[in-house]
Design a protein that fits this description.
CATH topology of the largest domain: Rossmann fold
Strand order of the largest sheet: 1-2-9-8
Helix content: 25-40%
Number of domains: 2
Structural class: alpha/beta
Distance between the termini: 53 Å
CATH architecture of the largest domain: 3-Layer(aba) Sandwich
CATH class of the largest domain: Alpha Beta
Radius of gyration: 19 Å
Shape: globular
Number of strands: 10
Strand content: 5-15%
CATH superfamily of the largest domain: Response regulator
């Protein structure tokens, strides 16, 4: 056992073999929630290749390891419908994050909202000009709102926004969900993550095998490039207009009067 134990908190420390533990949420599942929302809200199971649905793709920062898991999780749900021809990608079309050149074309440097908005505006005047988008895969709430702002400048979308996904349960996006502008978000309760990190640290200090309630141990997925890390993954929560009160307000995360 090393004298000093290191826990990577919410971000994998890449390029190092000098630590053994990582704690975060199941980020692949975050993406799956986003992809499933698009599949269900567009009723892709009943869509026809003769009348396909159209989607454009956004991803988080290419320097953030989590962005790859979000994207690949979403594409695991979307890919079967892309292969059937009932869902068409407008603009750059990476089918997995390992398609580095195309992934970098949809990535958003440093998760900057202004860059996402600018790219959406460019798409509306370029690749998407002659299409009516049915969905936008947005990796988090900040980017989702910026994308929605850009969409609302186009007459095609003022009264008919596409399905736009999100993540983080940000207050402004909960308001957007309530108002019908954003389709969903994924909530990762940082209160639970902090408590789980404390339990993990306590177990390590006591020389015990960690047992983190509500988390599953993954030893084969998260690789720093040097080694696989023991990763404890907490469950994210899918949030929609139907359950935002229960998930975000009844839990005490937000107060009811914060949402108009």
């Amino acid at each position: 056992m090393r004298k000093n134990q290191v826990i990577a908190y919410d971000r994998l420390i890449m390029g190092s073999d000098q630590y053994d533990y990582y704690i975060t949420f199941d980020n692949f599942k975050v993406g799956q929630f986003q992809g499933k929302a698009i599949v269900e809200l567009l009723d892709l199971a009943n869509a026809k290749a003769s009348k396909p649905k159209y989607i454009t793709l956004f991803a988080g920062s290419a320097t953030d390891n989590n962005a790859f898991y979000f994207f690949d999780g979403a594409m695991s749900e979307l890919l079967p419908f892309i292969e059937k021809g009932v869902l068409k990608i407008v603009g750059p079309a990476p089918l997995a994050s390992k398609d580095t050149s195309n992934f970098n074309r949809i990535a958003t440097e440093n998760w900057r909202a202004d860059l996402a908005k600018q790219r959406m505006e460019n798409l509306l005047n370029g690749d998407a000009k002659n299409y009516k988008l049915d969905a936008v895969l947005a990796p988090n709430d900040t980017l989702a709102r910026a994308i929605i702002e850009a969409l609302l400048t186009d007459a095609k979308y003022i009264n008919n926004l596409p399905v736009v996904t999100g993540q983080d349960g940000e207050l402004a996006s909960i308001q957007f969900i309530k108002d019908g502008k954003q389709a969903m978000t994924v909530f990762k309760d940082t209160r639970d993550l902090a408590k789980a990190a404390i339990k993990l640290a306590d177990a390590i200090l006591k020389g015990e095998t960690p047992n983190i309630p509500g988390a599953r141990l993954d030893t084969t997925t998260y690789n720093t490039g040097k080694k696989f890390i023991k990763s404890y993954l907490l469950e994210p929560v899918n949030v929609t207009k139907d359950n935002y009160v229960e998930v975000m307000i009844d839990s005490g995360y937000y107060k009811a009067d914060q949402i108009r």
